[in-house]
Amino acid sequence: MAGRVSIAEIGSRLRREGARGVLRRAAYELYRRTGAAELESAIAEADLADPLDARLLPGPRPHRDGEPITVGWLCTAPGPGSGGHTTLFRMIAGTEARGIASTVYLYDARGGDVRRHERLIRENWPWLRAEVRDAAAAPAFDGMEAMVASSWETAHVLASRGTAPMARLYFVQDFEPLFHPHGSVRALAEDSYRFGFRTIALGEMVQAELAAIDVGSILAPFGRDGDAYRLILDGSSRSGIVFYAKRGNDRRGYLLGKLALHAFHGMHPEQEIHIVGDRVSDWRVPVIQHGTLSPEQLNELYNRVVGGPALSFTNITLVVEEMLASGAIPVVNDTVHSRAVLHHPDAVWAPSSPGRIALALAQLVESEDNLDHAAHAADFSARHGVGWDLAQEVVAATILEEVGVGGRPLLNAAAERPGR
Question: What is the DSSP secondary-structure string of 344-399?
């Protein structure tokens, strides 16, 4: 057991780290001693389910002709700018446009106020029309013909609480066991794919990972917002680098990006470094912090910069396609997961090493034809890019099939991949 910190040690830390550093250490010690780390869990232990029980749950009742199809979407409470929630809400909007009545069920393991979460949704996704309900309300998911889980935690909640007759589906945006070190949480995340829900995989990487553990899935292709992200032809030159910072998600390469941009600044101190997303601190290089931006604001910024690091260690970040559509060149860390879904010739690949990423960024800003490069990247995206319509169609058709109304078009049926 560690002893008490002496006055002399506190004084030494004050001189070395300043008051802010001492306060951070005190806050961490309080966090550790009070067991506050348990609050980071996005699921209550009572909501964890077992595949042996989940596979015994009753299926849907026959749908009555002429009645509306009611579908619930189970998700955790979002934060502003959440990319995963944006994609999920796009799927919900797509199903509603196809005549499916949708309800969002918010699950908050910490018991937060659902009305507060709903206000945040309405402010950040004003185009989402679905009703918002509390997943903890009883009876669970009342009146829903189908429920769609959207994360490993909500899949467990659906298996443990959704015991009434209904169709159960799982919209999988990433292979979430990769988010965690080997251990209990990783095993529970992987177990969520074995509940027997009809599984829809977003992108080839997710589908391949599911097949590797003998889980079949329907493929929904990646898309991008073609209306928001596009080239602005105003003749302006490009300069600077942009980095979408996600401090709390190590799989998004925050530390790697920070180290790479420190090295890049040493090579090109004249180039501005723009940070969007999370606010950053303790950087030793000057940065311009933009915070959370709307897609339109992001497009304007992407049209001003040369490029930037776009890092992910699981499924590829949507930032890559959005940058390319705007003519900004992403430097992507070279992983088998990203290679599985990214086929754009203008993306730059670099090993997952700060120095190599910094060198790739330096080569971008040193190029004399970055305007031509930007134009080619945006043109390729415009001609070959896919919007979200096809993914929405896959999701809607799969739901209809599960509730017994119609079937998938042949185009979508061909996208199904069984497990091994």
Answer: -TT-EEE-S-HHHHHHHHHHHHH-TTHHHHHHHHHHHHHHH---SHHHHHHHHHHH
| C-alpha distances out from residue 154 to 43, 151, 158, 185, Å | 8, 5, 6, 14
In eight-state DSSP terms, residue 40 is G
CA distance 300 to 238: 12
Buried b / exposed e along 1-32 (16+ C-beta atoms within 10 A):
eeeeeeeeeeeebeeeeeeeebeeeeeeeeee
The candidate with the shortest Cα–Cα distance to 271, out of 303, 237, 298, 241, is: 241
Cβ atoms within 10 A of the Cβ of 64, count? 8
Nearest one of 170, 127, 128 to 146, comparing CA atoms: 170
Bridge-based pairing state of the strands 69-76 and 329-333: unpaired
Please check whether residue 167 is in contact with residue 58, taking contact to mean a CB–CB distance below 8 angstroms: no
Residue 420, token pair as written in the block: 């091994």
Low pLDDT (below 50) residues in the chain: 1, 31, 36-39, 408-415, 420
CA distance 291 to 289: 6
pLDDT of residue 22: 61
pLDDT, residue 5, reads 65
pLDDT of residue 1: 41
Q: State which H helix or E strand residue 171 sits in.
A: strand 167-172
Nearest alpha carbon to residue 392 among 178, 114, 62, 95: 95
Q: Is the pTM of this model over 0.70?
A: yes
Going edge to edge, which strands form the sheet with 69-76? Answer: 131-134, 100-107, 69-76, 146-149, 167-172, 198-202, 217-220, 416-417
Q: Which domains does the chain have, with CATH numbers?
A: 47-223+390-417 (3.40.50.2000), 241-384 (3.40.50.2000)
**336-342-344-349 Cα dihedral, nearest 10 degrees:** -40
Cα end-to-end span (Å), the chain:
50
What residues pair up with 133 in beta bridges, in sequence order?
105
Tokens, residue 77: 């409470």
Say how far apart CA 354 and CA 373 lie, in whole Å.
24
Using CA atoms, how far apart are residues 85 and 77, in angstroms rounded to an integer?
9
